[in-house]
Design a protein that fits this description.
The complex is a heterodimer of chains A (182) and B (315). Chain A has 182 residues and is of the alpha/beta class. Chain A has helices at residues 9-24, 41-57, 109-119, 164-167, and strands at 2-8, 33-38, 63-66, 97-105, 126-134, 146-150, 157-162, 171-176. Chain A is built from four helices and eight strands, in the order E-H-E-H-E-E-H-E-E-E-H-E. The two termini of chain A are 17 Å apart. Classes of the chains: A alpha/beta (182), B alpha/beta (315). The A-B interface holds A 39-41, 67-72, 75-88, 103-104, 110, 116, 119-122, 158-161, 166 and B 1-6, 8-11, 29, 33, 35-37, 39-40, 43-50, 53, 78, 304, 307-308, 310-313.
């Protein structure tokens, strides 16, 4: 197992600031904009961007938390069911311009399930997607509207986005899994 | 979802036959998951596709309103295909055995079975006959695990804690499966349980399960944080265990004046209530009663149990 840090600390915070500006950029008014963080680390990332938007633009955007476990498509291949986490969307989605935030965009299956999940809460005006890292290897035809950084990867590598809340520090790492010994 | 997040609680069970098989951590995991399912019931579209590839049979050899509707609703909310079986309108009347019935149903490719049966151990027997996941919805006077889970869930929701909490269960302790599951679950979670009822309805050696016995209702109400009244099951007893319903109410019914005299305890009842016997109407409908919360929570708890037991196919 070999880990290499790609971004951390203040460098990473600059990326958050850029995303905060990009979120706001296309809108004349921010009345309908809302942010939804995807469990678990997407929530921490969304909160950080949300904080920057508050500082820069003096608005308190509505913020929700989404767990997509129920909508996943990989149950049949697993014996143990993944633990369900909290979903909390404390505002009406109708007519909102939503930005979904997740840590890593990989196969695209999690975003697909997130869109399914959102639709059972109402009919938003639009949904955009932001990921901290796009690592490629898509299995579904989806792409992100906002990307923290592109990291071309091999399949035997793993991208980790660590957050202060979950891991005690903010960092993006690439971890190379060891080749199975033959 | 990244690999970091997959390291979740390793739920080790394939069936829910009784709380006897579940550790304190297993029970708490079901309750914590049920918390998340409660939120779904309040969504504009309260339906999720999680079990849409599962077929579930509700096998009811005994009458039931609450439990059967609650299970069926939970299954439909999660998108499962549901088959309902009740013994009164089936080939059981023609003499088909339990084993043959369940084997035949299994041939229709089912994934889970929810079973209620008058014989203790029937769900355990079925789990050995077929490959599906089995949930016990009450077997004779043995266990009723989902009821106990929803009772404990409701207590935690109301009081915010479990360890050290004092619960008194009042009524027909001998014939009640709800009591048995609750005692197992509650004592495992570090709650103190007292049972109270007429001597004719108190099984010998009940103390072995880790509970204390009392025959004095008012002393119990003084002591407890939660009072759970049980239904007097007229269908399960041969009669003669107490002189009259009125006399039972005099001695063991919770009355309006008790609410004044003991201002702290919470009131529960697994339903259906015999009003004026176990509880006076004013008690059942008072703000301190969480009887209707128990029903809503029952849905969430059953969704969580179905979810946790629906994992993957056996190789």
């Amino acid at each position: 197992m070999k880990a290499q840090t790609l971004l951390s600390g203040e460098d990473l915070d600059r990326t958050y600031m850029r995303l905060a500006h990009q979120f706001v950029e296309p809108f004349d008014k921010l009345d309908h904009l809302a942010i939804i963080g995807m469990q678990t680390r997407g929530v921490d990332i969304a909160r950080r961007i949300h904080k920057h938007i508050r500082q820069f633009f003096s608005v308190e955007l509505p913020m929700g938390v989404l767990d997509t476990t129920f909508y996943r498509d990989d149950f049949r291949t697993k014996m143990r069911m993944p633990s369900v986490q909290i979903t909390d969307i404390p505002f009406d989605l109708f007519g909102k311009d939503l930005i979904l935030v997740d840590d890593v965009l990989y196969t695209g299956r999690t975003v697909r399930s997130a869109m399914d999940a959102l639709m059972s809460f109402g009919r938003p005006a639009s949904v955009r997607f932001c990921c901290m890292v796009d690592r490629g290897h898509r299995e579904l035809p989806v792409t992100a509207d906002y990307v923290g950084m592109f990291v071309p990867t091999h399949l035997n590598e793993e991208i980790r986005v660590e957050t202060m809340e979950q891991d005690g520090r903010n960092a993006i790492l690439v971890v190379k899994k060891e080749e199975p010994k033959t | 979802m990244t690999p970091q997040e997959e390291a979740a609680y390793d739920f080790p069970h394939r069936h829910l036959l009784g709380l006897k098989d579940y550790s304190a951590d297993d029970i708490l995991h079901v309750l914590d998951q049920a918390d998340k399912f409660l939120e779904i019931l309040n969504r504009p579209i309260p339906k999720i596709p999680t079990l849409r590839d599962k077929t579930i049979v509700n096998l009811f050899y005994e009458n039931s309103t609450r439990t059967r509707l609650s299970f069926e609703m939970a299954q439909k909310r999660m998108g499962a295909d549901v088959l309902n079986f009740s013994s009164s309108s089936s080939s059981v009347q023609k003499g088909e055995s339990l084993k043959d019935t369940i084997r035949n149903i299994e041939s229709m490719k089912i994934d889970m079975v929810v079973v209620r049966h008058p014989s203790p151990g029937a769900p355990h027997f079925i789990s050995r006959c077929v490959d599906a996941a089995i949930l016990n919805a009450g077997d004779g006077a043995h266990e009723h695990p989902t009821q106990a889970l929803l009772d404990i869930f409701s207590i935690r929701e109301k009081t915010g804690r479990l360890k050290g909490l004092k619960v008194v269960i009042i009524g027909d302790i001998t014939h009640s499966r709800v009591v048995r599951s609750n005692i197992i679950g509650m004592t495992r979670l570090g709650m103190e349980v007292m049972v109270c009822g007429p001597r004719t309805m108190m099984p010998l050696f009940i103390e072995e399960l880790g509970v204390t016995v009392s025959y004095d209702l008012e002393a119990c109400l003084e002591w407890c944080d939660v009072a759970m009244a049980l239904r007097i099951q007229l269908e399960r007893q041969g009669g003669g265990l107490f002189p009259s319903q009125r006399e039972y109410h005099e001695k063991f019914g919770i009355k309006k004046r008790h609410l004044r005299e003991f201002p702290d305890f919470t009131i529960m009842h697994p339903g259906p209530i015999n009003r004026g016997v176990e509880l006076e109407s004013e008690v059942a409908d008072s703000p301190r009663s969480i009887i209707l919360n128990q029903v809503t929570n029952g849905l969430a708890v059953r969704m969580a149990a179905l979810y946790l037991l629906s994992g993957g196919k056996r190789e």
